[in-house]
Amino acid sequence: MFSANHLYVALFLFFLTLLGFWGGKTLLTRFRRRPHNDKTEHGLISPAAEEKRLAADESKLLRTYFRGLSYVLANETDKAVAEFVKVAQVDTTTAEIYLALGQLFRNSGEVERAIRVHRDILLRPNLPDEVRQLTFFEIGLDYKKAGFLDRACRTFEEILEQNPSDKAALDQLSSIYVSMQEWEKALSLHHEKPASQNETHIIAHLTAEVAKKYDHSGDKNKAVALFKKAIVLDEKCVDVWLHYGDFLIDNNREQEALDAWEKAFLINQEFISQVIERFEKIPAAKKDAALDNFFHRHLENYGRQRKFNLAYIDWQINSGKIEEAELRLKKVLEETGGDSEAFSLARRLLQSTQPAAGLDRNGSNSLVEDVFAADFNFEKRYYCHKCGFKLERIACQCPRCSSWDSIAIR
What we know:
Elements: H1 4-33, H2 47-73, H3 77-90, H4 95-107, H5 111-122, H6 129-146, H7 149-162, H8 167-179, H9 183-192, H10 197-216, H11 220-233, H12 238-250, H13 254-267, H14 272-277, H15 284-302, H16 306-318, H17 322-336, H18 340-352, H19 361-373, E1 382-384, E2 390-391, E3 407-409
Antiparallel strand pairs: 1-2, 1-3
Helix pairs in contact: 1-2, 2-3, 3-4, 4-5, 4-6, 5-6, 6-7, 7-8, 8-9, 9-10, 10-11, 10-12, 11-12, 12-13, 15-16, 16-17, 16-18, 17-18, 17-19
């Protein structure tokens, strides 16, 4: 998906193109054919007066265009819409203008107006097939934006019936199926596409989701076969290893589950929180030993990584190793600054820093000084590089645009 900035740039280029082609040809022809009442004293308009009138009209229209463009770039969508409505009124047969208006309405939240504009286009006689297909696509986006997912599905399905190779419609329909958790339908769409290395990771995610569905329905053999298929498709898919580990622990295959979760961690250490959370599924008598083993085996290789350190400090606090946790947190604050997660750990440490816990009041004061001296950044640490959505922690799928593996560190 485009970010807001991408949208404005795209609209800017679109209208510049429109100015060059439509403004330079269609408008000029229309103005020359327009009836007028300017006459000389002999009842006929002079060529000079005609040219002067045409120049004034064209100049006025161009000023309207550029006002609209300036409003788009200034993120003043309502004002931009008002200006482009004026332009559209000059030539009511120009579908491209109304398509652009519909996009502006949709992106400013006026989805009903966008749908009406796009439906009006479809009612026009002798509409070129290309414009008709584009309008159907825009209506599908309108329905999706409005939350009418069933209508959006039917619209994109109709487009694909006419043109099965329409990748944009395939992507939109797949995204809707994913948001509706229609995993098998989404997977079937990707199987219908030409093979692409860029889509293999998506197929792996969807295969894992279908495997989970079979697991929940009790078909364990089908589930494990699909999990293994997903791993073959993309061995570096964190999501697959995490869910495969969940499947294994639920079926009393404890060591295999630990191995699967550890594999996810080794692929991407930013997922350590999601890995450590899963240790809660281990029997209580074995959980502490498993966590101790996990951290100490990876301390040498990853002990300087921020996310690993914060997870390790959290475990130290839970295990009562307050002094060790405080020293490590001070080092993290000194080397990499702080965020909401580090601040939360500092608060827990301060609450634990009592004489009975083995620390004197000087220890508490020292930690407070380090917290106030640290450069804290409370902005969300992760974002989706496709739609710009910000998250507190990394995820395999963007909650807003449903894109897979699009979350990165800011």
